[in-house]
């Protein structure tokens, strides 16, 4: 049985962290299952956008403390390397990703959400990096992604106090883009995914890549990435069709994604 499932919802791949009896906590097997599902999403041309959510009342409540409690320093580092490798694969997918945070997103769960391109949350969601209260640091990218998303002071407060925040506070500091009633949240996330999937996918993926690469670079290097992406789009049929339709004041029936 896989702890991570993949369901097709039209052009959207719905990934569900499916270990509800442990609040979807991340152990070696869950991470390997997620790794395999991400490979499936990347290889499946029918999937244009991926949405990640959790089964039950949790998104991901964190890494599995039962597994971590007996690790040596070398084993702890190896576990961190595994988690970071999988989350970097998620971050670097060519396809856009949305975290649909339905409940607890703590520790590794918060880190999982931050590896996605966009985060939306249920009103019941809780976010936090509680690791220092357990005698460790964040291990799956929390010290790196959180400051990039919410600024160093907000990130330091969350990490160093080990306190959780609710969805509204996550919205205020920019950790999530939208907060919805619990019963609506997943549908809204899928609607957002459909809106992305309706656009020219070469342009969508080049835009994502330019943003991701630029975040790691100085401005001059970043705009060079953008110019490269911009130019590549002019070799696509979608650019020619869409601009011709615009000039003719016609509605384009859809994109060829090539």
From TrEMBL:
GO molecular function terms listed in the Swiss-Prot or TrEMBL record: 3-hydroxyacyl-CoA dehydratase activity
Gene Ontology BP, a term: fatty acid beta-oxidation
InterPro entries with a match to the protein in the record: ClpP/crotonase-like_dom_sf (IPR029045), Enoyl-CoA_hyd/isom_CS (IPR018376), Enoyl-CoA_hydra/iso (IPR001753), Enoyl-CoA_hydra_C (IPR014748)
Pfam families, per the entry: ECH_1
The protein's enzyme class: lyase
Catalytic activity: a short-chain (3S)-3-hydroxyacyl-CoA = a short-chain (2E)-enoyl-CoA + H2O
Keyword Lyase: yes
Enzyme nomenclature, EC number: 4.2.1.150
Pathways involved: Lipid metabolism; butanoate metabolism
Keyword Glycoprotein in annotation: no
Family: Belongs to the enoyl-CoA hydratase/isomerase family.
Name listed for the protein in its UniProt record: short-chain-enoyl-CoA hydratase
Species: Flintibacter faecis
């Amino acid at each position: 049985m896989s702890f991570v499932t993949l369901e097709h919802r039209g052009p959207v791949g719905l990934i569900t962290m499916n270990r509800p009896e442990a609040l979807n906590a991340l152990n070696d097997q869950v991470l390997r299952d997620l790794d395999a599902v991400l490979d499936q999403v990347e290889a499946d041309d029918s999937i244009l956008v991926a949405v990640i959510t959790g089964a039950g009342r949790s998104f991901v409540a964190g890494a599995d403390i039962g597994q971590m409690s007996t690790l040596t320093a070398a084993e702890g580092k190896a576990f961190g390397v595994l988690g970071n490798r999988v989350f970097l694969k998620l971050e670097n997918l060519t396809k856009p990703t949305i975290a649909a945070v339905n409940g607890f997103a703590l520790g590794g769960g918060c880190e999982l959400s931050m590896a996605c391109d966009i985060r939306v949350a249920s009103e019941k969601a809780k976010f936090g990096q509680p690791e220092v209260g357990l005698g460790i640091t964040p291990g799956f990218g929390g010290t790196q992604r959180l400051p990039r998303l919410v600024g160093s002071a907000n990130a330091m407060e969350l990490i160093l106090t080990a306190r959780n925040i609710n969805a509204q506070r996550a919205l205020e500091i920019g950790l999530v883009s939208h907060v919805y009633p619990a019963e609506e949240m997943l549908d809204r996330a899928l609607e957002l995914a459909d809106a992305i999937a309706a656009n020219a996918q070469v342009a969508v993926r080049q835009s994502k890549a330019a943003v991701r690469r630029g975040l790691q670079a100085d401005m001059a290097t970043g705009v060079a990435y953008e110019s490269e992406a911009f130019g590549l789009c002019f070799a696509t049929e979608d650019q020619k069709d869409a601009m011709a339709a615009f000039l003719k004041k016609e509605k384009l029936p859809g994109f060829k994604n090539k």
